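Page 37, top half.
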Amino acid sequence: MLVGFDTQHFAILDQFQLGLSFADIEASGEGPGPRESAKDHRLNSLSCLLGRSSTGKSSVFLALHFLSQSLLYGPELAAERIADAGFDSLLNYADQDGKSIGLGLNFYRPSFKEYLRYELEFISEDYETKVQYERVLKHSRQGTEVLLEVQNGEGWLRPERPNAEGPSTLDEQEPIELLDDSLQALAIYGRMLQYPSLAWLYRQIANCFVTQDPFDLNRLPARVRPGVETRLAADFSNARNVLAYYQQRDDRRVEKLQTVERILDKIPDTKITGDGNLDRQLTSGNLKLFLYYLLLEGDYSLICLDSPEAGLYHEQVEDLIREMRIYLDHNWDCQIILSSHSNILLDNLRPEEVWVMEREGLAAEEAKVQATWLGDKAKVQAMYKEGVSLGSMWYSGHLSQASETWYKERD
């Protein structure tokens, strides 16, 4: 599970930290499990990024999407897939002279009670995007060890010897040399089962679903191409292809309730249309809810949804959050991160699940983005225990530092 995330010179996220830093991990020894410490600022299985517009919520998703796509397609193509102007549009605008981006992800691996960190630096040179530096760290009871380190295409890794009674032991360093410095070593060695920690880390990053903008569909799209697909696109444009996959899979099963029927039973007020694959009419919020439930049928390590409450009335938002919690209870290795500025969605969350994104002096172009965890805010916790919902606190200006300042000045 992703417990922390940091960036350098990425979009508006310059020197940005979200969740648990690796320095905190090392300072705490092996560390407790993800839910054992109220003072542990790690991301939860269900987390929400709350904030006004232009406070970096979408940039967090963009960075996670870029990392995931770079492992699958390489950084150059990944940047072109997610940004209109490619890699240069991902650079921090305040750092005009720099051409590099630094990204770091901290994961907790519960099976072995250890942490894995993946950090790398991309650089733009001669109109090409290259991997300047890449490293994988492991922290456990024994301390911190480097599993892989590569600079400009050359470096080393330490093979692992599986241990049935606990974490793998490490062998001597093994030199590696990549074909070119636009490749990520994790994209290669993370697909090999003889490197179990790297393989686990690769799956956690590559197996992500990220949607950056609230999608708006009036009807279920037709198939975007022939054939079936197992994963939904970020804009849900291939929903028919994914439905075809589930239909083929369900035909081989003996369960009475098929995938589409199971989803539709959770959605009220649908009408019969005679469609063989989807035999009820879905419009407006019901269609959006159906696609979200279809997403929760998949196998993902991380799901990021931007403003999922848009277009849904309050009861549908409650149903969606409840289904997300059920999904996470049955898929312990999955995680969902939402972004929102809606008091309706907040009413269905707990303080320890919310991070408030803010920028110091929103009028300043070089304002730093900061993320504040509500889990250790005594006033918020006290009000929540008294029955005041987070949505009411947000609407009243108790969650945002900027809002609190505005209310004090007005009074």
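Page 37, bottom half:
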Amino acid sequence: MEIDQSIQTASGVVKSLTRMIRFRDDRPNVHLVYDAPGIRVALFCLKAGQIVTPHAAPMNVLMTVVRGHGWILVGDGGELPVEAGDLVACRPDEPHGMRAPRDGDLVVLAVIAAAPHPAH
């Protein structure tokens, strides 16, 4: 993963997702946008025909399509058609991935967050 520069302001950090969009010919490109305890944000840039193989993680995953269209792969073999502006939520341990169409790119922002633990 590649960590991009950010702009520090008095009240936080501003990052330009559009400046982070970069593609690779050999595989999807992943940029680490933000990383802190309990949360990670990554930008997935897939060229036409590329795929992120479904995998599971013990966290909640929210995927927002930033640009393009394609498919979010969820669960056991389910493919959801998505386009810019769509949001897909995955529960902890639910397989998820993504696939760009053969005729266009797909850019997805993924927010990976630990599930809150119930109070004892």
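Margin note: Helices lie at 17-20.
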